[in-house]
Each structure stands twice: as C-alpha cells, then as structure tokens.
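Researcher: Here's my situation. A collaborator sent me these components and asked whether they could plausibly form a single complex. I don't have experimental data yet, so a predicted model of the whole assembly would be a useful starting point for our discussion.
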Amino acid sequence: MKVLVPVKRVVDYNVKVRVKADNSGVDIANVKMSMNPFCEIAVEEAVRLKEKGAVTEIVAVSAGVAQCQETLRNAMAIGADRGILIETDVELQPLAVAKLLKAVVDREQPQLVILGKQAIDDDANQTGQMLAALLNWGQATFASKVEIEGNAAKVTCEVDGGLETVSVKLPAIITTDLRLNEPRYATLPNIMKAKKKQLDTFKPADLGVDVTPRLTTLKVEEPPKRKGGVKVADVAALIDKLKNEAKVI
Amino acid sequence: MANLVIAEHDHGSLKAATLNVITAATAIGGDVHVLVVGHNAKAAADAAAQVAGVSKVLLADGAAHAHQLPENTASQVVAVAGGYTHILAPATPHGKAVAPRVAALLDKAQISDIMKVIDADTFMRPIYAGNAYATVKSSDSVKVITVRGTAFAAAAQSGGSGAVETIAALGDGGLSSFVSAEIVKLERPELTAAKIIVSGGRGLGSGEKYREVLTPLADKLGAAMGASRAAVDAGYVPNDYQVGQTGKIVAPELYIAIGMSGAIQHLAGMKDSKVIVAINKDPDAPIFSVADYGLVADLFDAVPELTAKL
C-alpha cells in the first residue's frame, strides 16, 4: 500500500513571530523555518506503518516556494521514500492546496493520505478534510491511534470529552493529533541518504489547478498586550486581591 | 443574506457552542437558520427553535446520522446549502471536521476560528497561535466559517420562536463507520464554558498529585480543570483537558495556572481570560508575564493553603 504524506514548511514553533510595522503580515524574513510539527507526526506515522509491513511506499509532497525542498528532504530523512514538490510563489490557501493534492492523488493512487491536523502558521485546520471531500473519501481527523485492518483503517480520534474510534474504508484521509506518536530524530546517515532520494517538481499549471487565493488579508495586527500584573506576597494576599480587587471569587 | 448554523448537539439537547455561533451569525445580519443533523434529535431542534434570533430550524433526522459522522453530516449540509450566504459551525472537533468538507464540496474557501465579524465578507481571526490577528476578506459568494466560541457571547436560550421544519435525511454514504467511544462524563463545568478554571502543569509531577492537589481547589471554586500540553503528554490527565493552541481555547473569569511555565502555545489558549493567577516556584517563569496576580511559591504548600483559606 502506498501512502502520501503532505508536509508544510512553516516558521519554527520556537520562533515568536512579529507583526510587520505596516500591518501587512508577520515578518518571516530571516527566521528559522521547519516542518510543521503535525506534518512531522504524519511522516512518522507513515514510517511506523511501513515498519509494521502495512505500507510499502511513502511519498512526501509539499507545495510552496523552492525552499520546500528542504522540508521534503527532512521528510525523506525520517523515512519517506521520495518527494514531490509543487513549486509556486503564489500564497497558497487550504482549498488550493487540497486541489493540488487531489491532482497528485489522481496520479499516484495512494490508499492512504496522512496529514497534520493543522499548520501552526495559519492555524486553519482545513486541508485534510477538504482533500477528503474532493476525493469523496472517508476522513478520520485528530487521530491519536491508527491501525490498518484489511481494507479499512481503524482510527481513534480526539473529540470533545474524550476519544471516538471510527473505521474508515480505504482509500482514506487521516489527520494527526499531537499524541499519535513522537517523531524520531533524523540520523546523519539518513539525512545523507535522503539527499539522494528522488524528488520531482511540478508547477500548479502542470497539474491543471487554479491556485488563485479566495481570501485577501487586509491587515495583520498585534493582539492586545496583556500587561503583567503584580506579584503577591502570600496566599492571604492573593485571596484578598481576588475578592476585593478583581472580585472574581 | 441568510445564515445557516450547523448545530452542535447530542440529539437530546443543544450544546452550548451552538449559542455562540448563533450570536456570530446574528452579527453578520440577515435570517439565522439552524440545521440539526441527528437521529431522534427533535428535542435538540426544539431547543434551537427557542434560541433568541433563530427564525427557522431545519431538522434532518435519520439513522445515518446517529453518530454524526462528518462525511454524512457534510453531505446533509450541502443538500440544504442553496440560498445561504453564510454557513457557520463552532470551532469544535466536530465543527472542524465538518465545515472544511462542506467548503470544499461547495468549492468555497473557509474562514477558520473567527473572533470578530467586521462585515458580511470580512472577519478577524487569529494566526500563529494567536500571536497575530488577521483581518481577512472573502471574495466567495458563500462564506463557510468556523467560530471561536469564547469570542462571542452565548445567545439567549429562550425568546426565539423559530419553526422546526423536517427535511429529508440522507442515507449513509458508506465511507466510514462508528466503532466505539470513550467519553468521560464530567461532573464539572465544561472547560470552554466554565467561569473558573484550575489548570495544572508539569510542576505537579504526576497524575496522582494533579488530582490530590488540584481537585479540592476546583471543588471549592466549582471550577473546571485544565492542563498544559506537558501535563497531558506526561499522562497526568486525558487529552481533552489540554488548553492551548491546539487544545481548547478558554476565556473564563478566573484562570488559575498552577505549576506551569507558560509556553506560548499554552498562553494562546488562555490569555483572553479575564483574570489570570499564576502559582509557580520559578520567579522567571513566562507565565508571570501574563498573570494579573503571581505567587512565587511551592505549589504543594500554596495550593492546599489557598484551598483551606477560601
């Protein structure tokens, strides 16, 4: 069984982004970029399924600027077999990404697509579900456990109040939550090997997809700053503040 | 303009998140209709009809909707979507599973997790874990939206006089099936609706200590209980306790952060709380930079003392 794993290049999760002075966006020049953490979990899960024998080939896909190659090499260092880059400088929104991925799915015919549940830059949480809709496939979102059982995937999903297990008929879409696994570190030999793995590049037009954005960002602002308050000396002082100043208890 | 709100419900009753979405729909303007997709869900539909501002409730009641599988729910939404300019769902796990599917089926972009309605096409939403707020304008004829519940007040549960209209329920699309659920029955208020939240981090050291130290305080305050990602990952508490960028977004009157450092991903989930209290023995913990009241103390002494003195 072939698995497709889309991966996104985002500002590293340790970077605290700054809003540009002209409010046109956040400043991502000269900041560290990494693979979106949820995508890393998706790659790791695919590799584990391959190690268990449930998967034969893992294809990583990324859409965006040329530097997304680094993200794909990273996925290949974790264990993806080859990479596909859909290169464009256009700002890609989730619906456009889902359409690009559908075109790749049509070519590659995977039985499973594993994606991160959301990217930590736009926090949209849409692409996997949109891709499932475009393909008319089943979807299991926010997965914390995945088992392949014959022609279906049994997936435990994080829902309000606890966990829900569903069985999705293959081919299917799975989106990963934090507790699905802990991604391994890529070892130096695997990083070297990844450099030699196959990486194909397409343009959106090659795939016949219109990626024109539907949403325009009018402005980006700093959220209202929360002022740090005071330190209180002891528990009694804390209770006094909560009762008499904040009046919340 | 006409708004369709996808109800969050458990068939027998309407969940609180739906009320916040109705307020967002009212802010957009035009009629507000609510769609209840469920099985034996008349009671939830009747409750929706009573909500202030709702003029009509559509009820799609059928066996295929017994487990509210997102594939079937989305198909049902699309079947009734004609004529609506805005389709809204709460930014809950169910809403987040359904809405993008609806958007893609309609070939429309989705605007996720809106915090503010600027006008019928323009909305404010958080990006980068809430470290920036983006104002985005949609050029689509239909807007598919998920709503951040804590950013909109709950609509009144009475005062409405909507009519309930039963519509044909679609059959099962056969893409997925329900296997089982482990839902923890909470005896406390829900995190996203609670007035007070007692939240613990890795400083507690273990699940036993988390319960032993925090439960009496939460009991005394009638508070919901939350946790940092670190505490959830360490197995102290189940996943649905997690407050943060990828967990629950909360905005209670009082948030008491105990034994947690205050990672930006955690702050993203709670910094809109009215009053934040931090108790941590490390005076340099980032949590103190957002806390209204900080107490530098060993939580194992301070929390029992706080509980006793309240």
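Model: Some features of this prediction you could bring to your collaborator: The mean pLDDT of chain A is 96. Residues 104 and 207 of chain A are 8 Å apart (CA to CA).
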